[in-house]
User: What shape does this take?
Amino acid sequence: MNKIASYLRRFLETINHLVESLCSFLLATMVMLIVVGVGFRYLLESPISWSEEVAIVILVWFGWLSVATAVYRHTHMAIDAIYDHLPTSGKYWLNIIIQFLITLFAVNIMLNSSLLIAMVDEQTLPASGILRSCLYFAPLVAMALMTINSIGNLLLDRFVDESIDAVNNQQ
Assistant: This one.
């Protein structure tokens, strides 16, 4: 099983690294777009009508994708008061419950997001002309990644020996 777990870990690391790179690009693009928009508005007194709207779309994508990668890295928000006082076996089972609940949450968001995409159909945002469904497609994609990450966490926590986990926790 260690070979399969190694392939799964490598696959998840690659996907999450690509998504993190995309998030870095989105963040840089959003900052640049906002700076240019503010510059045009206040320095040139000629605002760009679509800059804020595009920045909001980028922010939505950035936020959702960041949350999805946080699940794999175990850097999501958590309350450690109970967790820190549990024995090792209790922490193990609590992690399984958490990953299972995250998976249920992600699947629920995916289903509702697909309903929203169908409802807005071909509506466009007024200033930029971007399809409104682009806003609701972000949670669909991110929650699919979150589901993959959560299931991967369940499998890796179960089948990877502790020496590999200890090395990864030090990084």
